[in-house]
Amino acid sequence: MKNYVVFIASFVVFLFAFQILSGLFLTLTYVPDTSQHFSSSTVSIFGNEIFNYTLLSAIISATFSFIISKKVFISKNSN
Asked: Could you tell me which of 3, 15, 21, 74 has the fewest CB atoms within 10 Å of its CB?
C-alpha cells in the first residue's frame, strides 16, 4: 500500500510539473498567423496540434513515478 501511495504522489507531482513545462514550451514557440485573420472571417480553432503533449507528459510522469516508487521500495527492503 505504501508503494502505491508513493507512486500516486510522485505521479501527481511529475504530471503537474510536466504540464507546466509543456505549457511554457508551447507558449514560447507559438507563432500566430496574422495574415489569415485579416483576410477571412472564419473562426479558427486554437490548439490544433498534431502532437499530444498531454499524453507525452502523462507517460513521462508515470515512468518517473514508477522508477521512484521502485527505488523507494528497494531501499526500504535493503534496510
From this structure: 74
For residue 27, the surrounding DSSP H or E stretch is helix 2-29
Question: Cell numbers at residue 47, please?
Answer: 490548439
**Residue 51 pLDDT:** 67
- pLDDT tens digits, 10-48: 888 988 998 899 889 889 988 877 776 666 555 555 555
Residue type, position 9, single letter: A
CA-closest candidate to residue 22, choices 76, 59, 77, 67: 59
Share of the chain above pLDDT 70, in %: 75
Burial of 17 (0-12, 13-18, 19+ CB in 10 A): middle
The residue whose grid cell reads 514508477 is 66
| Cβ(2)–Cβ(48) below 8 Å | no
